[in-house]
Amino acid sequence: MKSKDLICENLSVGENGRLLFAGHDTELLAKKYGTPVYLLDEDRIRQRCRTYLQAMKKAFGCKGKVLYASKAASFKRIYEIMNEEGMGIDVVSSGEIYTVLRAGYPLQNAYFHSNNKTDEDVSFAMENGIGYFVVDNEEELFAIQTEAERRNINQKILLRITPGIDPHTYMAVSTGKVDSKFGSAIETGAAEKITRLSLEQKNISLMGFHCHVGSQVFDSEVYLRAADVMLSFIADIKAKTGYEAKELDLGGGYGVRYVSEQPVIDIAENILSVGDFIKEKCMSLGILLPYIALEPGRSIVADAGLTLYTVGSVKKIPGYKNYVSVDGGMTDNVRFAMYGSPYTILPALDMNLPREMRCSVVGRCCESGDIIQNNVPLPDSIKRGDILACLTTGAYHYSMASNYNRIPRPPIVMLSANGNYIAVKRETFEDLTHLEV
Ligand SMILES: *Cc1c(COP(=O)(O)O)cnc(C)c1O
């Protein structure tokens, strides 16, 4: 029987009980590359890109765009893959832009987000030919106008709008998410004001609007509500000013499975139903169908990732609690410490053993909160030297990694049908001091 913990199609168990990931033996990978190590299933990433691209094409024809929200996992190889797959991208800092350029990815296909772009960010992005700025606020709008005028260019932008939707209740709330640090709210009139201001700027082309309702969203109703609010906003602006948006970006946020209790989302089907809704809504509002963009981050890379650790100490405190320590921790996976996120952790060497012991899997940092997961079922015989696999670590792990306690960051190893290779090397001790004078 297939274990319920094999939560993604790229997981399986070999004849010897070994956990296989993307068809590769995890014990052999741990031996070859050392631990901790981030594994990334390249074929899965490509497959997810294609699912989005094909569904958006089916829903909107040439008016569908898919942008990979690259803050989920940002390194050169991933931008090369996105380029090969024909994906647009989101960036949120000059550091990401620099990485994009080093990867040879064409920056005109990039959208620059963030709620606070510095003057240096604006200048660096324009210098290198950024496609779009997604403008968060008025100060930023003026900074972009000033820089575009200085360079004597015309800069395309979208405006980030706060539609006032709480993704976890999918209600359009009257205050709630209006208090976000991101964007301009429709309800307060700020969205209309910044739209009018944008239209007055000589060196700015307002292409349309953007919103992003949240992350780890399982309910497609959220996107219908967001589309509803945003299209109505477009129609309202058209009626008041005559300006009709050409582009509407609905953000990212489709949920992925960290544990078996979470559902599998049929992204293609979701996109098609949002597509039908949008086309009908445009007709009934009397506006043209705009270009529609989605910005998936997590759902492109999350379940393509898996982290392997080696077990160190196993501490059983009778009547209280068991701890299994691994050779990584909050430095390579901060998501439990930060958000209390659930994870599935498996004994990679022998998946056939009964898992009767409950334990906290903890890291090696000097910090009690350095926990990867509580209440993990593992074999009672788990011991120093065994290998553990933490699933669904492709998004927001490497990109959030730190050197706390001077722990070097793990490498990223890419897996494909053709073999495996290093995309990012393991940090060395020398790397830890090389900026110090
Ligand atoms: C983070 C982010 C995304 C991606 O969200 P996921 O949950 O990773 O899909 C998309 N758009 C914006 C503006 C974001 O900030």
What this model shows, in words?
The chain has 437 residues and is of the alpha/beta class. 31% of the residues lie in helices and 25% in strands. It has twelve helices and 23 strands. The chain has helices at 26-33, 42-60, 76-85, 94-102, 119-127, 138-151, 190-200, 221-241, 267-285, 298-301, 335-339, 429-433; strands at 11-13, 19-21, 24-25, 37-41, 64-69, 88-91, 110-112, 132-135, 155-162, 165-166, 171-172, 184-185, 204-210, 247-249, 291-294, 305-317, 321-326, 345-347, 357-362, 371-378, 387-391, 412-416, 419-424. Strands 4, 16, 17, 18, 19, 20, 21, 22 and 23 form a nine-stranded mixed β-sheet that branches. Strand 7 (110-112), helix 5 (119-127) and strand 8 (132-135) form a beta-alpha-beta unit. Helix 2 packs parallel to helix 9. The longest helix is centred in the middle third of the chain and has 21 residues, at 221-241. It starts with 10 loop residues before the first strand and ends with a helix. The mean pLDDT is 95. The protein binds pyridoxal-5'-phosphate (PLP).
